[in-house]
Amino acid sequence: MNLDKPCGQLLLVEDDRRLARLTAAYLEREGYAVEQLADGDAAAVRIPEAQPDLVILDIMLPGLDGLEVCRQVRHQYQGPIIMLTARDQVMDEVLGLEVGADDYLTKPVQPERLLARIRAHLRRAREFAGTSRPDSSAAVSDAPPGRQPIETVVQVHEQDREIWCQGRRLLLHRPEYDLLALLLSRPGHLFSRDELSLALRGVAYDGASRHIDILVSGVRQAIGQPAVIKTVRSRGYQLVRHWPENNRSG
């Protein structure tokens, strides 16, 4: 075990008891405390109660399935949720992100890959907890009408993990918030999918995953202004520097 790496309290929700024991034993050897549950009903109660550092949540569970568990607990639990799926990868990824999961892995999962994702998400959560930046809600623009800097229209409230646009709070899932906050940190910068995947998931873009594309679609829908995030074909995504002049959200 590497004593230098961060440890944390994990909640593993997996109904395959043998797999759960093996996974928990591996993670415990790596320095994590692991609580195990085997059904969705218990998980929906335990996650808000225990507030673990991270949840590993299988989709196929007795009682409530993992998607419904995630949907129910998301407003009470702000930590990372990694979903495990043995079904159609793209569909489960879409559904998982829609209910607020941070990441997904397709079973069977290599322990080293799961560990890498856990470390990446816990590191990001701790970095967020230990850092802050000026609240953009205080920004004042003297730009001409229709040429307002994007950060004066779309504003990050980091303490509350909220983003506001034209006076309304955007309804964003945690991964969508993280993506938009990252884009807002560098308006005009062209983020490659690899850059975004490394920043948001801790892993390089594999050339096939639609994780980033799904998040971008969700953010565009929440803002109500697709032109705010440009797609640069074969390269990535770019947040515009100024709020679009001729296309205003209602």
UniProtKB/TrEMBL annotation:
Residues bearing PTM 4-aspartylphosphate: D58
Methyltransferase as UniProt keyword: no
GO cellular component, one term: cytosol
Pfam family of the protein (one): Trans_reg_C
Residue ranges annotated for the Response regulatory domain, each copy included: 9-122
Region (Disordered): 127-148
Span of domain OmpR/PhoB-type: 144-241
GO molecular function: phosphorelay response regulator activity; transcription cis-regulatory region binding
Biological process terms in GO annotation: regulation of DNA-templated transcription
InterPro entries per record: CheY-like_superfamily (IPR011006), OmpR/PhoB-type_DNA-bd (IPR001867), Sig_transdc_resp-reg_C-effctor (IPR016032), Sig_transdc_resp-reg_receiver (IPR001789), WalR-like (IPR039420), WH-like_DNA-bd_sf (IPR036388)
Protein name: Response regulator transcription factor
Native organism: Natronospirillum operosum
Lineage: Bacteria, Pseudomonadati, Pseudomonadota, Gammaproteobacteria, Oceanospirillales
